[in-house]
Design the sequence.
């Protein structure tokens, strides 16, 4: 899939390099996950091709990198979902590109119960300017951080800046991840762990309200398949954390 839009290729490569360096990284397995490695379909006579990559590591229950093509649209979707036992937010990035340009590009470190001072102080220093800022969907107002960037990219310089910004956000996130993993799980009170678990449930619930994604998948396959993909592949609920001392 080397013929993707250059920004999709750049981001996918940078994200892979970043997560491949995480200690304990390994593929996420399971019948459903493995069956969704490559998905093919047709929407309104346009071919849909989806390629999924799934990994996990200490501190993260799932890393999901999706690259897709629908007709002349190239899509990248990536989320790093934390293990709720660790005091970590959610990293996410998406772009939709075509030969005419990048119509949608978003990156965020989304809180599940709030962002640490370490993260906010670093994010506040990351400064990039884009000519066209897009409005967040209504369902996203309650899950994205004040540092969320959602823009339309006007030229190659803005595309390069966005790629750099995604890497900056990833670096902030992975630094926080490494510090928390060094401490180990269960460094928080059980009620704090459950608040993070509930916060991630809310994040996934809100993301599943994206009717554009659901509509495309339902047209390509059917409503049941679309729901399964949204609920079990894109934004699956985290499992309830085991209590301290239990596996």
Sequence:
């Amino acid at each position: 899939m080397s013929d993707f839009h250059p920004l999709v290729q750049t981001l996918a490569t940078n994200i892979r390099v970043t997560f491949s360096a995480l200690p304990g990284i390994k593929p996420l397995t399971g019948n459903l996950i493995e069956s969704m490695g490559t998905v093919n379909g047709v929407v309104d006579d346009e071919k849909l091709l989806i390629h999924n990559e799934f990994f996990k590591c200490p501190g993260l229950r799932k890393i999901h990198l999706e690259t897709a093509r629908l007709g002349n649209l190239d899509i990248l979707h990536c989320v790093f979902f934390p293990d709720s036992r660790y005091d970590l937010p959610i990293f996410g990035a998406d772009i939709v590109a075509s030969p005419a340009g990048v119509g949608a590009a978003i990156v965020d470190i989304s809180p599940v119960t709030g962002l640490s001072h370490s993260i906010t102080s670093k994010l506040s220093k990351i400064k990039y300017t884009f000519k066209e800022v897009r409005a967040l969907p209504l369902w996203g107002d309650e899950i994205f951080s004040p540092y969320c960037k959602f823009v339309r990219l006007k030229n190659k310089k803005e595309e390069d800046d966005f790629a750099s910004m995604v890497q900056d956000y990833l670096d902030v996130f992975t630094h926080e991840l490494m510090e928390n993993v060094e401490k180990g799980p269960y460094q928080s009170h059980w009620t704090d762990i459950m608040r993070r678990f509930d916060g991630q449930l809310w994040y996934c619930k809100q993301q599943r309200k994206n009717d554009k994604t659901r509509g495309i998948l339902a047209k390509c396959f059917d409503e049941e398949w679309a729901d399964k993909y949204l609920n079990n592949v894109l934004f699956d609920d985290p499992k309830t954390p085991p209590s301290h001392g239990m596996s």
